[in-house]
Amino acid sequence: MALVRTLTTPLRAPLRRLIAAWVELRLIEPATEELDLDPRLPVLYVLPHPALSDALLLESLTRAHGLPPAAGQRRVGDISLPACLALPSPGRRLWRRSTRLEAPFLALLEQRRAHPGHEVQLVPVSVFWGRAPGKRFGFWKMLAADSWQLTGRLRRALSVLLHGKNVEVHFGAPLRLGDLLDERGAALANRKTARLLRVHFRRLRTRVLGPDLSHRRTLIEGVARSPEVRRVIDSLAEEQRTSRARLQRRAVRYGREIASNMAYPVLRFMDGLLKRLWNRLYDGVEIRGLDRVKALAGDHTLVYVPCHRSHIDYLLLSYVLYRDGLMPPHIAAGRNLDMPLIGPLLRRGGAFFLRRSFRDNRLYAAVFNEYLHRLLSRGHPLEYFIEGGRSRSGRMLAARPGMLAMTLRSYLRSAAGSGQQRLAFVPVYIGYERIIESASYQRELRGGRKRKESPLALLRVLGQLRQPFGRVAVNVGEPLTLADYLDREVSDWRQTLGETRPAWLTPLVPRLGEELCRRINAAAALNPVNLVALVLLATPHHAIEVSLLERQLALLAELQRRRPGGAHASLPEGTPTDWIDQVATLGMVERRAHPLGDILVADAGQAGLLAWYRNNVMHLFALAGLVAFAFRHQSTHRLEPLETLLAPGWPILARELGIEPPASLREALAEMLDLLVDQGLLERDGEGWRRPREPLEAGERLGLLGRLMQPSLERGYLLLAVLLDAGPGRLVAEELAERSRQLAERLALLSGLDAPEFFDTRLFASLVESLEAEGWLWREEERLMFGQPLREAARRSRELFDPALRHRLQLITRSRDA
Predict the structure, then answer these.
(1) Per-residue confidence at 429, pLDDT binned at 50, 70, 90?
(2) Rounded to the nearest 10 degrees, how much is the dihedral formed by the CA atoms of 586, 589, 594, 597?
(3) Strand partners, 544
């Protein structure tokens, strides 16, 4: 190395200029202005291994961005060292491999121990020339791209030549020498410093490159020959009298059908393609919360669990992660997407395909479980949609148990072996101002059949690209570390690690799904479209004065700021006026000029579309809407009677909307009541609260807020009416849901309410499950039973609802009985 330095010293300046002219930095992480450097202390940059190209690039970067220079020598007290150091790599000889050399910080640490004033900041720096996830992709790419293997000089030169336009630089948090010293001496601190830096570099490479990938064929053959799959083959061979060789070939065929074939050239191609697509399709992609992912990515297996609103979700999250220096995940995709042209591209982008159901195919299930286990146990990031399919209503759907259960079993299997795997679920909310599938969702909600995906369908989608689609938000919620969650929920889970399916696993999976749904919803993104939808659809005829709409939008924004409905929820930039203009530009509403003030109107088609966007975020205002609804038919309330009135239904509503109930409903109600007083929507009345007498607009705005929860509350009331009318032990769950749906559909038609979502059978089925979960209902021989507490709660809740609704329900019930 000394000889190389001597030879390159005269060439250093021209080489640095050549590097600066040739290289384009795709990413600097974090941004240079965000580095937490103390300007009073000297800085030494540390590279993971000696590389002239990295050092020259760092010199150029620090000069361009006004950072402490990485060129030349840095004098600290009596010691002079290069401003850019590298951790020593083992030297290689034909006949031997030398032992690891000591890190070059010993003299600095001894000086710092003797003279505390000679403090130094060490800044670790990682440079990635291209990003290959450790797999061979052809001779030149294999030689040139960064992977887990350290590069030689020739390979590094090829990297600079071939990947100079795709370079990432990652800075680590500064380390101070004084924080590393203790009473054990400088020599031990030197080894400790090197160890900390190597751990940092290793975690960062895992975060950026992912674990080393096996060749796809090797992986598939390993899955098909695994003990778990072989056991199923042996069992089936005896049961079906089929040869083991034939079943083995079938297992390999299943593996080929399932396995992804992630390819770095395709990732780069998709990156460029998607960048152009987003710029054409959207006005911008807003990303929040990725720091929470980066804090875990180095030493946790990450399982991304986004909400599923559009086919764009697959592409968008991978693009965001790749552009921000994180390894794109392997994505579980439905087999229906494995179509000509599209399937191979998705597979090389990291998608692996699964059938809708494989409960009755034991061999396929064994192959899929083993494949998933190998991905997770090796630390590959994973992505799947716990809702199963895309949400046609815009709501967060109930989590499906399949992939969650398989992930849990894989984790337990790994923990029973090494016990060292750390796994974290990463909830992600993806919010659109306008989605491509709007028309098809409306058609399916009205009873139309779901069209099969095909390349021709893709061409139809491409024809929409000239339309405006606004902005899209990607919000990362609070990650869930699986070991911590299991410690809270199942205190003795480690004692059952040897069991294939411990008794606690089946009841835990739905609870885990509900927790992840709540965390996704807590990161919801409010945007102009869903904010306008929240207000406009609360009006009787989907028309509102623009001035009133602006004030109501400002109210919703203030409610979210003062008492957020989600811990990581976000508000859009701009003012209510800007938001209204944006929604009109997207063609979601019509603005009609009038001498007395402009009016915003949505026709039947627009209102149907807006309902989807309203449902994305309605849960953020559940408590505010519930409190406002309580004042609809009763002008005054005191806190204790109000809590008694709302307490029975609040857990049901919270479960339906996927929100975390507050620790104390009474305290939450008191805070919300006072907040509505501050906004002028309520007034204090002695020990209680009442609707304001003046101005009339305050009552109108309170009514608009209360109508947010009206559909959900009325659905619950309809279901209770059907249940109580039938009596205990008369209905099964499916029959109750269907009768309630029929009643809701009839009421919607009679009232002119054109909202198919109001009488969605799945919502009524979910209500039945919620009543069971809260103990209001139970089953005896599949028949639904209930007691006096449910009758009493239903009687009290009648005060919340319109007398006309109660009367109409009585008439419909009597006519049916007659």
Answers:
(1) very high
(2) -90
(3) 600
Q: Please tell me which residue, 759 or 339, carries the higher pLDDT value.
A: 339
CB-based contact 418:513 (threshold 8 Å): no
Judged against a pLDDT cut of 70, whether residue 769 lies above it is answered with yes
DSSP 106-156: HHHHHHHHH-TT---EEEEEEEEES---S---SHHHHHHS--SSPP-HHHH
Q: 29 forms bridges with which residues in the sheet?
A: 170
Phi/psi region, residue 727 (left: phi>0; alpha: psi -120 to 50; beta: rest), is left
Tell me the β-bridge partners of 287: 474
Across 158-162, 582-586, 774-778, least confident range: 158-162
The token pair at 240 is: 């079906």
User: Angle at the Cα of 25 (from 24 to 27), degrees rounded to 5?
Assistant: 155
Q: How far apart are the first and last CA of the chain?
A: 98
Q: What is the pLDDT of residues 175-192, one digit of tens each?
A: 998 888 887 888 888 888
Give the Cβ contact number of residue 462 at 10 Å: 11
**Nearby residues of 55 by Cβ (< 8 Å), 6 or more positions away:** 47, 70, 84, 86
Sequence letter at residue 737: A
Q: CA–CA separation, 306 vs 703, rounded Å?
A: 34
Instruction: Count how many residues are written for the chain.
Output: 818
Residues 787 and 156: their CA atoms lie apart, in Å, by 76
Name all contacts of 499-502 with Cβ < 8 Å and 24+ positions apart.
Answer: 500/409, 501/409, 502/412
Cβ-Cβ contacts under 8 Å for 231 (sequence gap 6 or more): 366
Residue that has been written with the tokens 């406002």 in this structure: 628
Residue 714 in tokens: 């009325």
pLDDT tens for each residue of 269-324: 777 777 777 777 788 889 999 999 998 988 899 999 999 998 888 888 988 898 88
- Across 184-211, b (16+ Cβ under 10 Å) vs e yields eebeebbebbbeebeebbebbbbbbbbb
Close Cβ partners of 56 (under 8 Å, ≥ 6 residues apart): 12, 15, 16, 19
pTM: 0.84
CA dist., res. 281 & res. 465, Å (int):
6
pLDDT of residue 795: 85
CB 328 within 8 A of CB 346: no
Distances in Å between the alpha carbon of 201 and those of 84, 105, 704?
16, 17, 55
Residue 124 to residue 119: CA distance in whole angstroms: 16
The first and second tokens of residue 505, run together, are 């696993």
- Backbone angles phi and psi of 349, in degrees to 5: -90, 0
Q: Please, are residues 85 and 47 in contact by the beta-carbon 8 Å criterion?
A: yes
Q: Which one, of 662, 671, 608, lies nearest residue 444 by Cα?
A: 608
Reduce the DSSP state of residue 689 to 3 states and report it: strand
Q: Which residues of 497-530 are buried (b: 16+ CB within 10 A; e: fewer)?
A: eeeeebebbeebbbebbbbbbbbbbbbbbbbbbb
- Closest by Cα among 55, 68, 51 to 20: 55
What is the residue-wise DSSP string for 232-268? HHHHHHHHHT--HHHHHHHHHHHHHHH-----HHHHH
- Going by C-alpha positions, the residue among 97, 93, 85, 94 that lies closest to residue 58 is 85
CA distance 358 to 408: 18
Sheet holding 636-638, edge to edge: 636-638, 688-690, 683-685
The residues, any chain, with a CB within 8 Å of residue 385's CB and separated by 6 or more, are 305, 306, 307, 308, 313, 332
**Exposure letters 409-436 (e unless 16+ CB within 10 A, then b):** bbbbbbbeeeeebbbbbbbbbbbbbbbb
- In the numeric block, which tokens belong to residue 453? 């995906």
CB 331 within 8 A of CB 383: yes
Give the tokens for residue 31. 């941004």
